[in-house]
Amino acid sequence: MRIQIKVDDKKFRKELNKLSSKIKNPTPALYEIGEGLLRELDARWGKDPSGRNWQALKRAALAQKRAENKSTKILERNVILKNSFNYRLVGKASLLFGTPIEYAAIHQFGGKTAPHTIMPYRKKALYWIGAAKPVKKVRHPGSNIPARPMIGIEKPQQEMIVEILESYVNK
To answer: What radius of gyration do the chain's Cα atoms show?
Structure first.
């Protein structure tokens, strides 16, 4: 799956084109931009690319995480998603940045998951806090997932990219 995020900021695109046309070999700059995007994403995890906090967890989800002694931070049940982001160069002048994890898309854009049956994986039955008794399976109605954008090019990322390109133009 590939999702493309386009930057509508004409001023930024114009600046980007002007700077990149002055760089003979953009490969080192693109690697630096990729590394910069990784560092920036890691530093602001829990916020969208513009710096706004993600929508808070609902009380029930928070209570469930606490009962299971799991992290109450959003999208940090484990660090698999957070640590899966990467970049690669495509051709001589393009950078792909993202994650191979499929469920990242629903968190990026929000949406409703399909109804599905939950069955035990390691045990013979399912049980959770509040359940009357263990059960063999549960029919889940689906969940409404709010958008919690992780990647995008907003002012902070634009400034970083321009700064990197300017440093390569000045070299």
So the answer is: 21
Side chain identity at residue 69, one-letter code = N
Angstrom distance (rounded) from CA 66 to CA 122? 22
Q: Could you give the CA distance from residue 114 to residue 118 in angstroms, rounded to a whole number?
A: 12
- Sequence-ordered list of residues with C-beta below 8 angstroms from that of 94, at least 6 positions apart, any chain: 30
Q: Which residues pair with 98 in a beta bridge?
A: 86
Structural contact between residues 47 and 53, judged by C-beta atoms closer than 8 angstroms:
yes
Q: Per-residue pLDDT tens for 4-34?
A: 666 778 888 888 888 888 998 999 999 999 9
* Residue count (the chain): 171
Token pair 């602001």 is found at: 44
Structure tokens at 44: 């602001």
Q: How many CB atoms lie within 10 A of CB 161?
A: 24
In this predicted structure, what is the pLDDT of residue 91?
85
Q: For residue 144, which phi and psi values (nearest 5 degrees)? A: -90, 115
Q: What's CA 130's distance to the chain center, in Å?
A: 32
Global confidence as pTM: 0.83
